[in-house]
Amino acid sequence: MNNVAVVVLGDIGRSPRMQYHALSLSKLANTKVSLIGYNESTPHQLIRENENIKIYALKPFPALSEKVRVSLLWPVLAAMKVLFQIIQLFWVLMFSVPRPLNTILVQSPPAIPTIMVLQIVARLRSIHLVIDWHNLGYTLLQLSIKKEESHPIIKFAKWSVQIIIVNQTKVFIVYSSNLIEKTFGRSAYAHLFVTEAMKNTLVKEWGLKGKTFVLHDKPAPIFKYMVEKERLEFLRHFKEKYKISKEKDVKFIDDVLSRKTVMAISSTSWTPDEDFSILLAALAEYDRMLRRKGLGDRPDLLFFITGKGPQKEYYEAKIAELNLARCHVITVWLDSEDYPKLLGCADVGVSLHRSSSGLDLPMKVVDMFGCCVPCYAVNFKCIEELVKPGFNGRVFTDSLNLSQYFFDDFIDFPSTKLTKFRDNLRSERDQNTWENEWKSVKPIFDNNATTLNDKKKR
C-alpha cells in the first residue's frame, strides 16, 4: 500500500490546491491519503466522500486578541502556539496516520513549525518529503507586521517601551523565520513551485537539493465559461436574490443585460495589500473621458467588487465621493455558489493583488481564466507567467494606465478586444486543467510504496 500524508497547517476547506493534490493522489493505484490540517470550513464534497482520503483534524490554538498582540505577553504566547503545533504534528505523523508512511506532501507557508517537524519525521521514518512552495513565509510575516503597525493602537503608542520591545521581537522573528525556512526547506526529495520565478529564485539563492517541478495553479471545475443565455438568467436571478433595488444599481444591471454596458469584476478581502485607490482613480478618469464630447462609441461601465474585510466601509465612502455618472460600482458579499457564476457573467476582471514575495500568482486570476474572463492585473515580478498581455488580458502599473486600457479596449462594445481575449482563453480551456498539469509530478508519488522502504531494507 502507498500511504501519502498531505499536510497543510491551515484550514483544509480554504486550501484548494492541497485538496486537488489529495484528490489526484487518491486516484493512484493502491494509494491511501491522510489529509492533515484544520477542519474549520467544509472541504470539497469530493474530498468528504472519497474512501481513499481520511482527514486528520488538528486543533487550532486559541486566537490572540489585538490587545494581546501588542502586549509583552505576545512573544510568550507565540512561542506556546508554535510548541502546541509541533506536538500535534509530530504526534499525528508518528502515531496516528497509517504505517508505513511513504511520502509527505506539505504546503509552505507556513514553514514554521511545519517544515522543521516534517524534516525530523521524514528522517526518523525514512519517508520522502515533498515541499509545495506557495510563497515565502517570512515575506508574509513582514507584511502582517506592516499591517499591525498601521493599527491605531500601535500608531498611538509606537514610542512606548512595550511597543518597542514587541516590535523588536517581531523583527527578530522575521529574521529567524527567513533563516529557518531556508535551512530546513533547502533539502527535500522534491520541491514543487507555483511559478518559474519562485523555482529559479530558490534554486539560485538557497541552493535547493532535490527534484524541482513547476506546478501552476489551475481553476476548479466550478469556474467555467457561461453562454449568453446562462449569463442573462443568472443576472436576473442575482437582482432578485440579493434584493437589488436602488435605481442606479437596477439601471446599470439592465444595461449590462441589454449589452449596452461593460461588466467588470474584482474580488478582495479589503486589506491593505490591495490598493483599491488605483481602481477608483481609474474609474474616475474613465468616467471623465466618457463625459467629453465625441466619445459616444465607448460604453458605460458597471463594476462589481465582491468580498468583505476591514477596509470595505472606508472604500465604499470613497466610491460615493467620486460622484460617477457613466461608471457605477456595486459592492456585494456573495454566497459561495454564486461567486463563480457572477464571475462568469463579467466581460473583464481586474486584479490588484501584489505578491508579498513577488514570486507567487493571484488565485483570483486563475479563477477568472477558468470562466474565460480576461484580466487586467497590476504589474509585479512574475505576473506575466499567468497574464499574457495582448492574449488573455493586460498588465498595468498605475490608474492612468488602467483607465487607458478601459478606453482602448471597450471601443465598439460588445465586439471589442475583450472578445478576442475571451476566445483565446476558450481555445485553451480544455487543456488548462489541474489533471493535465498534475501529470508532470505524478512520478514523484507513483509507486513510492516500495521505493524508500526497500532501499532501507537493502
TrEMBL record:
Cite the entry's keywords alphabetically: Endoplasmic reticulum, Glycosyltransferase, Membrane, Transferase, Transmembrane, Transmembrane helix
Q: Which residues form the Glycosyl transferase family domain?
A: 275-398
Q: Does the keyword Kinase apply?
A: no
Q: Which sequence ranges form a coiled-coil region, renumbered to this chain?
A: none
Q: Where in the cell is it found?
A: Endoplasmic reticulum membrane
Query: Per its UniProt record, what InterPro entries does this chain match?
Result: ALG1-like, Glyco_trans_1
Q: Which reaction does it catalyse?
A: an N,N'-diacetylchitobiosyl-diphospho-di-trans,poly-cis-dolichol + GDP-alpha-D-mannose = a beta-D-Man-(1->4)-beta-D-GlcNAc-(1->4)-alpha-D-GlcNAc-diphospho-di-trans,poly-cis-dolichol + GDP + H(+)
User: Under the cellular component aspect of Gene Ontology, which terms does the record hold?
Assistant: endoplasmic reticulum membrane
Per the UniProt record, which residue ranges are transmembrane? 72-94
Q: Which GO terms describe its molecular function?
A: chitobiosyldiphosphodolichol beta-mannosyltransferase activity
- In terms of superkingdom, the source organism counts as Eukaryota
According to its UniProt record, what is one Pfam family this protein matches?
Answer: Glycos_transf_1
Pathway(s) per entry: Protein modification; protein glycosylation
Q: How does it sit in the membrane?
A: Single-pass membrane protein
Xref: PANTHER family: BETA1,4 MANNOSYLTRANSFERASE, CHITOBIOSYLDIPHOSPHODOLICHOL BETA-MANNOSYLTRANSFERASE
What is the protein name for this chain? Beta-1,4-mannosyltransferase
- Species of provenance: Heterostelium pallidum (strain ATCC 26659 / Pp 5 / PN500)
Gene giving rise to this polypeptide: alg1
